[in-house]
Design goal:
The chain is of the alpha+beta class. Helices cover 29% and strands 42% of the residues. Strands 1-5-4-3-2 form a 5-stranded antiparallel sheet, covered by helices on one side. The protein is globular.
């Protein structure tokens, strides 16, 4: 599956687990259930309904975390922009 350009790239002083929890809670409040995929240097959160729509890669850094959010679908709506703001609020 081809990833599109990042819609959010940021660094955070928060630890990975705090960011994951915050994003998961925000997405579940929006009736979106994220799946968590553990990677060697971090975690990927995926919202799939029924195919992957949004992906957030969170990598550990000595001072916190590096976050990249990508969209996987070609249609981009206001609702998707709200998801970016939900993720940004967790950083």
């Amino acid at each position: 599956m081809q990833k599109h350009d990042a819609v959010l790239v940021a660094d955070s002083a928060k630890p990975i687990q705090a960011i994951i929890k915050c994003i998961s809670v925000a997405w579940m409040a929006a009736k979106m259930t994220p799946n968590t995929i553990t990677r060697p240097n971090g975690v990927t959160l995926v919202v799939a309904a029924p195919i992957p729509l949004l992906v957030v890669d969170i990598d550990a850094r000595p001072t916190g975390a590096h976050v990249e959010m990508r969209r996987l679908k070609t249609i981009w709506s206001k609702a998707n922009r709200r998801q970016v703001e939900r993720v940004r609020a967790c950083l």
